[in-house]
Specification:
This protein is an alpha+beta fold and about 450 residues long.
Length: about 450
C-alpha cells in the first residue's frame, strides 16, 4: 500500500499520519509472515532433513507456526481490498474488530514458550545443533538474530497491536466511522492479550513446579498445588554467598539450588518454603549486613553488602531467616515490589508493619525501611512482559515484575520492561480475603516478569 504522491497534497496532515499508521500495521504483517516462513525454511526443515533434531523435538520447539501464516495473510488481503486507487484505506475499524479474536490461536504457542526455550537451550549442548545454529547466525538471512529471536517474534507482535491501533485512532477524526470501531478493537485485543498472559502464566508456573526436587517430603507444602501463577523468579545470593534460584509463587516463596540430574535440569528446594501469608519482608540498608562469610571479611568493611533484603517466617519459632542479595538497586526494587504485592493480598494496608523493637539491636533495625506491606503494587508492562506483564518474565527477577516473558521466558530477545506504582489501601484488615483481594491476586498472576 503506497500513498499516491500526486494526491498527497490533497490530504490533511492528520489524514496523512493516519494512513502512515495503517501502513505501519500492514508492513508489520508482511514482515511477520516473512519471518514465520523463514523460521520454517531456514531452521526447521533443514534440521529435520539432516536429522539434527527429531521431528518430535522440532514440533515442541517450533509449535504450529505454519498455522498462523494464513491468519496474517487474511488480514493483509482484507486491507488490500479496502485500499482505494489512490493508495489510502478508507475504513479499517470493522476489519480489525472482526479479525482480532482470531489471535486467540496463539494461546497454546505462547503457553509452550517456557518449555520450548528450555528444550532449545538443552539441545544447544549438542555439537551438531550448536554448529548449525552458529552458521545460520553468521548468514545474511538471519539479520544477526538467533533462532529464539525468530520464535519469539509472534509474541512480540501480539503486544504491538494495542500500540498500533492507538496510533491509528490518535489520527482519526472523532466523527469518522472508524473511531468507535477502533476503540472497540483496542478493548478486544486487550482481552485477548489478558487471556494469553493468564494461560502463559499458569503454564510457566506449572513448568517450574514440576522442576522442583524435594530432599524431604516435609518440604512439600500442599499450597504449592494452589499456585496458579509465578510472580517472579531469579538468581540471588544468600548471606554465605551461595547462589539460590528463588521463586515467588502466589502462595509460596521457594528457595532452591539449581542442579542437574541425569542431564536434566531441576531445582532442589533449599530449606522450608515460606507461605506468603506468613512472610515478613525487611528492606535492609547497604552495609547493614556483611556477606560472604570469609575470614578476612570479619575484620574489614570490604564485604559489607549492598542491595540486600531479608525474608522470614512471621512466627520466630520457625527459625528461618534468609538474607538475600540482588545484583543492583533496580532489580532489588523489582523484588521488593513483587514481594510487597504478594503479601498485601493476605495482609491489607493497615496490617502490622515492622520487626519488633524490644532490644538495642531492634533500635538499629527500626532505622531500616519497613517492608511489611502497606500497599498493593500494581505492575504493568510498558509494551508487553510483568505476567499484561509483560511480565511477566525480564534479567531482573525473571519476573520481578517481564512479554514474557522469560525464565526461559523472561529473558528472550524481546525483553519485557515493566514499571511499578503503589496504591494505598485504607480499609480495615479482614480475617478472610475479600473479593477485591482475590481480584488483586488474580491481577498479579497476569504479570510477565524478568530474570535476575
Amino acid at each position: 500500500m503506497t500513498l499516491d504522491v500526486h494526491q498527497k497534497g490533497t490530504f490533511s496532515t492528520k489524514e496523512i499520519k493516519r494512513q502512515e499508521a495503517i501502513f505501519e500495521l500492514t508492513r508489520g504483517e508482511q514482515d511477520l509472515i516473512e519471518d514465520l516462513q523463514l523460521a520454517r525454511k531456514a531452521y526447521h526443515d533443514p534440521m529435520l532433513k539432516l536429522s539434527i533434531m527429531s521431528e518430535e523435538e522440532l514440533t515442541h520447539i517450533f509449535g504450529d507456526l505454519d498455522a498462523y501464516i494464513p491468519l496474517h495473510e487474511d488480514l493483509l488481503a482484507q486491507l488490500a481490498r479496502a485500499t482505494g486507487p489512490d493508495g489510502t484505506v478508507g475504513q479499517i475499524g470493522q476489519i480489525v474488530v472482526s479479525w482480532l479474536p482470531g489471535l486467540n490461536a496463539y494461546r497454546d504457542y505462547c503457553s509452550n514458550q517456557v518449555a520450548a526455550k528450555a528444550l532449545l537451550d538443552q539441545k544447544k549442548q549438542d555439537r551438531r545443533v550448536q554448529d548449525f545454529l552458529q552458521r545460520c547466525l553468521e548468514s545474511p538471512f538471519s539479520r544477526k538474530l538467533d533462532l529464539w529471536s525468530f520464535l519469539d517474534i509472534p509474541r512480540s507482535r501480539l503486544f504491538k497491536y494495542p500500540l498500533l491501533l492507538r496510533e491509528i485512532l490518535k489520527h482519526t477524526a472523532p466523527e469518522h466511522p472508524d473511531t468507535p470501531r477502533l476503540e472497540q478493537a483496542i478493548t478486544i485485543i486487550q482481552g485477548v492479550l489478558s487471556d494469553i498472559n493468564m494461560k502463559k502464566g499458569e503454564s510457566e508456573s506449572q513448568y517450574y513446579i514440576d522442576k522442583l526436587e524435594y530432599l524431604d517430603d516435609r518440604q512439600r507444602d500442599p499450597r504449592i498445588d494452589q499456585c496458579k501463577s509465578l510472580l517472579c523468579h531469579g538468581e540471588l545470593r544468600n548471606k554465605s554467598g551461595t547462589k539460590l534460584h528463588v521463586f515467588l509463587f502466589t502462595e509460596l516463596l521457594v528457595m532452591t539450588r539449581s542442579v542437574t540430574r541425569n542431564e536434566h535440569h531441576c531445582f532442589q528446594v533449599y530449606r522450608q518454603p515460606i507461605p506468603v501469608q506468613d512472610l515478613v519482608l525487611e528492606d535492609l540498608q547497604d552495609g547493614d549486613v556483611k556477606m560472604g562469610g570469609s575470614f578476612r571479611g570479619a575484620f574489614s568493611n570490604s564485604d559489607k553488602a549492598k542491595n540486600i533484603f531479608r525474608v522470614r517466617f512471621q512466627d520466630p519459632s520457625q527459625g528461618q531467616s534468609h538474607t538475600l542479595q540482588v545484583n543492583d538497586v533496580f532489580h532489588k526494587q523489582q523484588w521488593l515490589n513483587c514481594l510487597r504485592s504478594a503479601i498485601s493480598v493476605h495482609h491489607p494496608a493497615d496490617a502490622a508493619v515492622t520487626t519488633p523493637a524490644s532490644s538495642p539491636a531492634a533500635d538499629a533495625h527500626s532505622k531500616r525501611r519497613s517492608s511489611k506491606i502497606s500497599a498493593i503494587i500494581h505492575i504493568e508492562e510498558a509494551d508487553e512482559n510483568c505476567p499484561l506483564t509483560p511480565a511477566g518474565p525480564t534479567s531482573a527477577p525473571s519476573s520481578p515484575c517481564g512479554d514474557e516473558t522469560p525464565s526461559p521466558t523472561s529473558t528472550s530477545p524481546s525483553s519485557r520492561s515493566s514499571s511499578s506504582s503503589s496504591s494505598p489501601l485504607s480499609s480495615p484488615s479482614p480475617k478472610h480475603k475479600t473479593k477485591k483481594d482475590k481480584r488483586s491476586l488474580c491481577a498479579l498472576g497476569k504479570r510477565k516478569e524478568t530474570m535476575v
